[in-house]
C-alpha cells in the first residue's frame, strides 16, 4: 500500500471511530519547552492538562477552533535532532510523519489497544509479531490493564508475544522539560515476512501522570491516550521492503541521487533535503541560533556533498547531483498531502539558493583549512564553523582520522561558551551597563530606557490589533523584540501587505494614541482569559493566573485591543505620542516583520 494511501486509511479509520481529524501543526511548536515539534501530541498538551477544553475552548495551534470531540486523529509533521548523527543507517531520520490517535478523557486502555489491533490486522492485513508492556518500578506500578487487554486478544507471556520492559522502553514523555507522560505498550512487526527481525511500529502512551520540571510525578485528573506510529516504518512493513529508504516515500528522491555514491551519503542527502524543505515551508530560515541553526546544518551538509560531487573531489568522481531538483521533487511528491509546500515552493527554493550562495563564498577555503589542520578538537572545529561555516557533521565526516577525538558534546559545549561570551558582550554594549530588565523580549539598562521599552511594548499590542483589523483575524504573532530604539514585531501572513494597508495600520495605531485610551488590566485564570477572546502568543507558556491588558475608550467602552501579557505597559495610550512604521519585510515562508518607533515625549 502506498504511503499516501496509508495516511488516508489511518485518518478514515479513526474518523469512523468518532475521532475529529485535526491537521498537522507547524514544525515550530507553541510549546516553549522544545525547539521543534517532535511528537504528534505536542499541539494537544493543553487538553491533557485541562488548560483547554477540546469541546469548547479554541486553541490557536488548531486554527483557533475547538476540536469538538474528546478524541482526535492526525498525521503530524515531526523533526528530531537527537539521532542526527545516526542518519544514514537503515532506520534513523530527522524529519518524519507521525500517525496518531488521541483521547482527552474519551477512552482509555481497552479501546486504544483494540483500535490499534483492528487497524493493523483487519484493515491493513499485517500480522503483529509481539507487544511490550510496562513492568513497573518503584514509583509507577506494572501496567496490568494493558497486559489483560492483550491477553483477551490472544497475546500472552506464555506464548512469547507479550514482553515486559522498564522505563527505558515502556514509559514515554514528557515532551520538553515538563508535561503529560505515562506507561506505554508497543507493537512490533517483522519488517519482512522471512526476516527474523522485528520493528517497533506503534507506541501507545497512556498519559496518567504529569512530570514536573524536577521529574516528580503527579496523577492527571483525566488520564488520556496518546499514540504514535511512524509513517515511514508503517510503509516499510506494509510494502515489505528491507528499510525505510526502499519505501515509496524515498524512492523518487533517491532516484535523483547517483547510485554510485556511497549509500550512507545518498540517504543523508535525501533525509536532509526532505527535512529542509519542510522547515523552510513552515517559515524557518537558516541562522546561527535555535531552529534556524538546525536548518543551516542540514543545508550546508548537503551543499558540501553537492559541491564535492560536481568536480570529482574526495573520491566523488564520476557523478553529480542537483539539490534544487531534489527539492522540487520533494515538493511535488508531498504537495498533495501538504499543500503548503506548493504555495511556498518559490520561497523554499529562493531561500535555499540564498544559503548556497552565502556558503559557497567560504566553502572551498574551509575545506582547504580542514585539510591543513592536524588534529581536530573542539576548539579547532568551532574555528572551522565560525570562520568558514562548516557544520560539525561535515568536519567529523571529512576530517576522517584527524577528528576521531572530536565528539558532539565537546563541540556543542564550545559553541555554547562562545554564544554566552557573545551575549555578554551585547548586553555590555546595550547602555554600557548591566540590564535592569531582560525578559528575552524586552531589554533596558537603566530607568530611562525602561520607560522607552514600556511605551514600545504597549505599541506592539496596538500594532497587532491594527494588523488584524486591516489584514484579517488570521494574523497571529510570530515573535517580538524590543530595545530602547525600536520595536520589532513578527506576524504570520502569507503575502506582502500593500503600502496602502500598512498606511492604514499606522493610522489606526495613531488614532488609538490620539484618543488616549485606557490601558488597564485584569487578573484571571488562564482558561477564563482565553474565553474573553484575548490574544496570546502561542509559543509562550502562561501561568495558571494571567493578566489581560485591554486598551479601550473610557467613554464608550469600545475595545481596541485585548491581550494576555505580563510585561510593563503605559496607563494611557496617549503616552506613546505617535507611531511610525519604518520597515516591513519577509523573514520566512508566511512570516513577516515590522520595525517601528514611537514619538519622543
UniProtKB/TrEMBL annotation:
One CC-aspect GO term: cytoplasm
Record key words, sorted: Aminoacyl-tRNA synthetase, ATP-binding, Ligase, Nucleotide-binding, Protein biosynthesis, RNA-binding, tRNA-binding
GO terms assigned for molecular function: alanine-tRNA ligase activity; aminoacyl-tRNA deacylase activity; ATP binding; tRNA binding
Enzyme class: ligase
Gene Ontology BP terms: alanyl-tRNA aminoacylation
Entry-linked InterPro entries: aa-tRNA-synth_II/BPL/LPL, Ala-tRNA-lgiase_IIc, Ala-tRNA-ligase_IIc_anticod-bd, Ala-tRNA-synth_IIc_core, Ala-tRNA-synth_IIc_N, Ala-tRNA_ligase, Thr/Ala-tRNA-synth_IIc_edit, tRNA_SAD
Domain Alanyl-transfer RNA synthetases family profile as annotated: residue spans: 1-601
One protein family per Pfam: tRNA-synt_2c
EC number(s) on file: 6.1.1.7
Family: Belongs to the class-II aminoacyl-tRNA synthetase family.
Record NCBIfam families: PRK01584.1 (NF002436)
Name of protein: alanine--tRNA ligase
Organism of this sequence: Candidatus Spechtbacteria bacterium RIFCSPHIGHO2_01_FULL_43_30
Amino acid at each position: 500500500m502506498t504511503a499516501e494511501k496509508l495516511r488516508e486509511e489511518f485518518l478514515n479509520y479513526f474518523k469512523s471511530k468518532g475521532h475529529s481529524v485535526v491537521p498537522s501543526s507547524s514544525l515550530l511548536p507553541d510549546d516553549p519547552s522544545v525547539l521543534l515539534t517532535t511528537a504528534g501530541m505536542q499541539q494537544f498538551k493543553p487538553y491533557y492538562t485541562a488548560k483547554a477544553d477540546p469541546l469548547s475552548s479554541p486553541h490557536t495551534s488548531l486554527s483557533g477552533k475547538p476540536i469538538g470531540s474528546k478524541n482526535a486523529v492526525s498525521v503530524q509533521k515531526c523533526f528530531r535532532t537527537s539521532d542526527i548523527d545516526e542518519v544514514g543507517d537503515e532506520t534513523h531520520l530527522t524529519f518524519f510523519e507521525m500517525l496518531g490517535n488521541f483521547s482527552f478523557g474519551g477512552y482509555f486502555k481497552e479501546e486504544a489497544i483494540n483500535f490499534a489491533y483492528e487497524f493493523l490486522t483487519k484493515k491493513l492485513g499485517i500480522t503483529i509479531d509481539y507487544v511490550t508492556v510496562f513492568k513497573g518500578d518503584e514509583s509507577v506500578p506494572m501496567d496490568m490493564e494493558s497486559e489483560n487487554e492483550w491477553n483477551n486478544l490472544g497475546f500472552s507471556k506464555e506464548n512469547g508475544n507479550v514482553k515486559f520492559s522498564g522505563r527505558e522502553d515502556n514509559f514515554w514523555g514528557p515532551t520538553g522539560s515538563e508535561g503529560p507522560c505515562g506507561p506505554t505498550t508497543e507493537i512490533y512487526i517483522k519488517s519482512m515476512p522471512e526476516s527474523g527481525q522485528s520493528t517497533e511500529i506503534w507506541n501507545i502512551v497512556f498519559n496518567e501522570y504529569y512530570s514536573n520540571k524536577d521529574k516528580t510525578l503527579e496523577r492527571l485528573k483525566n488520564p488520556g491516550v496518546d499514540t504514535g506510529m511512524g509513517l515511514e516504518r508503517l510503509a516499510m512493513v506494509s510494502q515489505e521492503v528491507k528499510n525505510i529508504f526502499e519505501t515509496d516515500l524515498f524512492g523518487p528522491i533517491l532516484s535523483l541521487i547517483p547510485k554510485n555514491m556511497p549509500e550512507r551519503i545518498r540517504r543523508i542527502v535525501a533525509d536532509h533535503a526532505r527535512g529542509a524543505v519542510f522547515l523552510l515551508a513552515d517559515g524557518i530560515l537558516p541562522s546561527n541560533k535555535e531552529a534556524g541553526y538546525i536548518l543551516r546544518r542540514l543545508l550546508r551538509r548537503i551543499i558540501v556533498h553537492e559541491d564535492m560531487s560536481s568536480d570529482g573531489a574526495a573520491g566523488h568522481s564520476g557523478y553529480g547531483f542537483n539539490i534544487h531538483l531534489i527539492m522540487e521533487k520533494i515538493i511535488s511528491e508531498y504537495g498533495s498531502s501538504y499543500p503548503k509546500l506548493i504555495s511556498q515552493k518559490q520561497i523554499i527554493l529562493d531561500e535555499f539558493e540564498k544559503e548556497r550562495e552565502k556558503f559557497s563564498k567560504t566553502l572551498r577555503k574551509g575545506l582547504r583549512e580542514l585539510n591543513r589542520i592536524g588534529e581536530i578538537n573542539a576548539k579547532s572545529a568551532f574555528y572551522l564553523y565560525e570562520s568558514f561555516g562548516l557544520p560539525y557533521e561535515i568536519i567529523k565526516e571529512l576530517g576522517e582520522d584527524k577528528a576521531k577525538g572530536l565528539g558532539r558534546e565537546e563541540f556543542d559545549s564550545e559553541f555554547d561558551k562562545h554564544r554566552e561570551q557573545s551575549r555578554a558582550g551585547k548586553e555590555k554594549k546595550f547602555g554600557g551597563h548591566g540590564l535592569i530588565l531582560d525578559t528575552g523580549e524586552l531589554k533596558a539598562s537603566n530607568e530611562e530606557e525602561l520607560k522607552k521599552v514600556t511605551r514600545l511594548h504597549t505599541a506592539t499590542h496596538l500594532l497587532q490589533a491594527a494588523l488584524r483589523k486591516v489584514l484579517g483575524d488570521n494574523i497571529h504573532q510570530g515573535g517580538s523584540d524590543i530595545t530602547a530604539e525600536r520595536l520589532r514585531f513578527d506576524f504570520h501572513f502569507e503575502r506582502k501587505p500593500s503600502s496602502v494597508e500598512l498606511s492604514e495600520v499606522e493610522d489606526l495605531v495613531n488614532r488609538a494614541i490620539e484618543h488616549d485610551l485606557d490601558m488597564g488590566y485584569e487578573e484571571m485564570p488562564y482558561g477564563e482569559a482565553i474565553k474573553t477572546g484575548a490574544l496570546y502568543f502561542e509559543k509562550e507558556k502562561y501561568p495558571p493566573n494571567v493578566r489581560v491588558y485591554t486598551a479601550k475608550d473610557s467613554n464608550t467602552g469600545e475595545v481596541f485591543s485585548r491581550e494576555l501579557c505580563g510585561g510593563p505597559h503605559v496607563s494611557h495610550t496617549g503616552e506613546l505620542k505617535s507611531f511610525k512604521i519604518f520597515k516591513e519585510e519577509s523573514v520566512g515562508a508566511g512570516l513577516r516583520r515590522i520595525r517601528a518607533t514611537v514619538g519622543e515625549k
